[in-house]
Amino acid sequence: MRRSSPLLRQILRGAASSSSSSVGRRSVTYMPRPGDGAPRPVTLIPGDGIGPLVTGAVRRVMEAMHAPVYFETYEVHGDMTTVPPEVIESIRRNKVCLKGGLATPVGGGVSSLNMQLRKELDLYASLVHCFNLPGLPTRHENVNIVVIRENTEGEYSGLEHEVVPGVVESLKFCSERIAKYAFEYAYLNNRKTVTAVHKANIMKLADGLFLESCREVATKYPGIKYNEIIVDNCCMQLVSKPEQFDVMVTPNLYGNLVANTAAGIAGGTGVMPGGNVGQDHAVFEQGASAGNVGNEKLVEQKKANPVALLLSSAMMLRHLQFPSFADRLVTAVKRVIAEGKYKTKDLGGSGTTQEVVDAVIANLD
């Protein structure tokens, strides 16, 4: 059966026309209407460390709620030299992937498989949603930030070389499509403000080009407030007054830092969902850094937090046009967090992955 048009193609097609009348004629939104109900295949990469634990948790919840998806599972590990061709082919065929964390080697010229996936599939937009969850106390309230960062260019393109011993040159560049994605996301989700994060006071050409693109796109969305903030001031403002931010659009390196900071403020990386989206494909995974991916104690004790990936899988269900299933899942997860009876160590409890999963299943409507 022919698949519906991919999410990002719909978004960019809508952004191509800036008149208010054309906006009114849109037949799709970022949160798609229910589709035809046909079960959808999803490529599943359990990953390393806690990955199999949390992806297994998602599978159990999906089965319990009879979600109309089925998984094609592939073993991929961060110490591989490349992503196997059959995995890439599966994602190209299915259009959607759910993955656990992959360990990324540090230094030594070894390529990150996460980056290989993003470049191979042109997953240029990273979206991380950082928000307060009732029942999870944090220093700040009313945090609801969406961090949208460029995912494949600039530093993350990996285009660097040693000119002479001790001198390394790295390429940094940006494109306007990430700005278009951010403003269209804000428009379709009734967000009021888009903030561009930059360092154009120093990187006058590279970050200056990024700001030019954002400013040009902003003129096409007069109903959305646009502002700019230097990245170091942004970090200070995040930890002091995070409630002032709505949608943030950033080049990739700044966005990685901003997203992890926002996640920590809102309750921790273990509860923040995210996805990497391109024109034709989408990979959903834990939103902020999976720094605990190799935590052997969590694996041995089976106490990894599955909440982030459960919420990411809800994003996936919306992407696949199953919004009612997504709502059921999010509601159940929020109930478990609010009750506070079953929490993993990162949330101040001692619960196991299985206990959290059982509680979520028990709270499904």
UniProtKB/TrEMBL annotation:
Protein's UniProt keywords contain Oxidoreductase: yes
Predominant location category: mitochondrion
Coiled coil region boundaries: none
InterPro entries named among the record's database cross-references: Isocitrate_DH_NAD, IsoPropMal-DH-like_dom
Protein's GO biological process: tricarboxylic acid cycle
Molecular function via GO: metal ion binding; oxidoreductase activity
One Gene Ontology term, aspect cellular component: mitochondrion
Low complexity compositional bias, start-end: 14-28
Residue span(s) of domain Isopropylmalate dehydrogenase-like: 41-360
Region (Disordered): 13-41
Family annotation (Pfam families): Iso_dh
Compartments where located: Mitochondrion
Cross-referenced Gene3D superfamilies: Isopropylmalate Dehydrogenase
Its biological purpose: Performs an essential role in the oxidative function of the citric acid cycle.
Family classification: Belongs to the isocitrate and isopropylmalate dehydrogenases family.
Descriptive protein name: Isopropylmalate dehydrogenase-like domain-containing protein
Protein source organism: Musa acuminata subsp. malaccensis (Wild banana)
Organism taxonomic ancestry: Eukaryota, Viridiplantae, Streptophyta, Embryophyta, Tracheophyta
